[in-house]
Design goal:
five-stranded parallel beta sheet; alpha/beta; about 180 residues; P-loop_NTPase; Cytidylate_Kinase-2; Rossmann fold; 8 helices
């Protein structure tokens, strides 16, 4: 288990889990959002994004934090394990709201050097809200991930499906 991608719906706690997993295994933690988002919430071209992702994945060991479906051919080419944080809708919604409120309150920069910060208006009163995204995509993302588990194209990958924080903590304990 050298190359691991942690996936899950928005609000599932991928980054928090990845930080713990990276510390447990002493592997670098690669955050896809950090690779994707530029200053002032600028989106890179796919060529730029894919190139930066390929470069980040050149390491021997890594914990990759994130989804971005269009990157599956790149990130899963050499991945050993995909860990799916498959938490309930209400759990992920609660976590998304809690995270958005915290980030809007503290005004913390999300990815160093980008200046990107969340605001209450953007987090709670916008169609671009991560909360709205969680509400509208949770079901379809879950169906997509379920299809990955049985897709012969991904038979080289070991999938680990964690359905609760308790499962996630037990998984981490078993590794240490």
């Amino acid at each position: 288990m050298n190359k691991i991608n942690v996936i899950g719906t928005s609000g599932s706690g991928k980054s928090t889990f990845c930080k713990k997993l990276a510390a447990t295994l002493d592997f670098p933690h690669i955050e896809m959002d950090k690779i994707f988002w530029g200053p002032n919430w600028k989106w890179p071209s796919d060529d730029e994004f894919f190139g930066n992702l390929k470069q980040a994945l050149e390491k021997t060991n890594w914990i990759l934090d994130g989804n971005y479906t269009r990157t599956v051919p790149i990130k899963w080419e050499s991945v050993d394990v995909v860990i799916w944080l498959d938490y309930s809708f209400f759990r992920t919604l609660f976590q998304a709201i809690k995270r958005a409120a915290h980030r809007a309150w503290t005004k913390e920069e999300l990815w160093e050097g980008t200046g990107n910060r969340e605001s209450f208006r953007k987090s709670f009163f916008s169609k671009e809200s991560i909360i709205w995204w969680t509400i509208t995509t949770h079901g379809q993302v879950r169906k997509k991930y379920e299809s990955y588990l049985t897709n012969p194209k991904f038979s080289h990958i070991k999938f680990v499906r964690l359905k609760s924080h308790k499962d996630a903590e037990a998984f981490l304990r078993a590794l240490s």
